[in-house]
Amino acid sequence: MSKQAAPWCPVAATVDVIGGKWKPTILFHLKDQPRRFNALRRLMPDITQRMLTLQLRAEDDGVILRTVHETVPPWVEYQFTERGLTLGPLLDAMEDWGHAYGRAPTTAPTSTAG
Questions:
Q1: pTM score
Q2: 87: pLDDT confidence band, cut at 50, 70 and 90?
Q3: Residue 98 in this model has a pLDDT that exceeds 80
Q4: Fewest CB atoms within 10 Å of the CB: 69, 86, 98, 104?
Q5: Helical (H) or strand (E) element with 85
Q6: Regarding beta strands 75-80 and 64-69, do their DSSP bridges make them parallel or antiparallel, or are they unpaired?
Q7: Domains present along the chain, CATH in parentheses
Q8: SS3 letters for 26-59?
Q9: Strand order in 35-36's β-sheet?
Q10: Contact at 8 Å (CB) between 78 and 63?
Q11: Measured distance CA(83)–CA(61) in Å, rounded
Q12: Interhelix angle for 23-30 vs 49-57, to 10°?
């Protein structure tokens, strides 16, 4: 018996590009403007430097362009490629849904003991 290939799914193809814990957030922050590595770190304080580096270096789907500026000291900038720009409406829809239905972080209750 031979295994039959699963039918192609466009949603799965999209998740392959934008899925994961950190990838959608990285893409969201690159959507409107190029960012340097440390700017991304400041926008995403919960991601480790190592994880951000891995996520940006693993970019093999053609949506993020990495540009090294050969200055002293050198610096690196990340931005969307033309293909990446096509994700803008999808990221906008995710942002809108998050505002409407997502749970905002809660702050710790303050003590009023006295």
A1: 0.78
A2: very high
A3: yes
A4: 104
A5: helix 82-85
A6: antiparallel
A7: 13-100 (1.10.10.10)
A8: HHHHHCCCCEEHHHHHHHCCCCCHHHHHHHHHCC
A9: 35-36, 75-80, 64-69
A10: no
A11: 9
A12: 80
Q: Are 41 and 52 in contact (CB under 8 A)?
A: yes
What are 14-66's pLDDT values in tens digits?
Answer: 888 888 899 999 999 999 999 999 999 999 999 999 999 988 887 678 899 99
Mean residue pLDDT across the chain: 87
- Quote the CA–CA distance of 90 and 112 in Å, as a whole number: 44
Q: What residues pair up with 79 in beta bridges, in sequence order?
A: 65
The one-letter amino acid at 83: R
User: What residue has token string 């540009």?
Assistant: 67
Token pair recorded at residue 49: 């430097």
